[in-house]
Amino acid sequence: MSVNEKFYYVYILxxxxxxxxxxxxxxxxxxxxxxxxxDRIEKKHLPVNxxxxxxxxxxxxxx
Length: 63
What we know:
The protein has 63 residues and is an alpha+beta fold.
C-alpha cells in the first residue's frame, strides 16, 4: 500500500442464523467488525450472536 492509496470497504454482515442483514461502509474493515461485536455485547437487550461477514468489496483509490 502506498501513501497515496486509500482503501474503502462496503460490507454486509449477518447473524449466526442469517435472519438479519446489516450493510455498511468503512476504511478499516477489521476495526469496524470489532466495533460491531462490542456493540452487540454492550447492548444487553440484543442477543449476542456470532456476526459473520456475508460479503465485502474493497476499492483502492489512488490519490
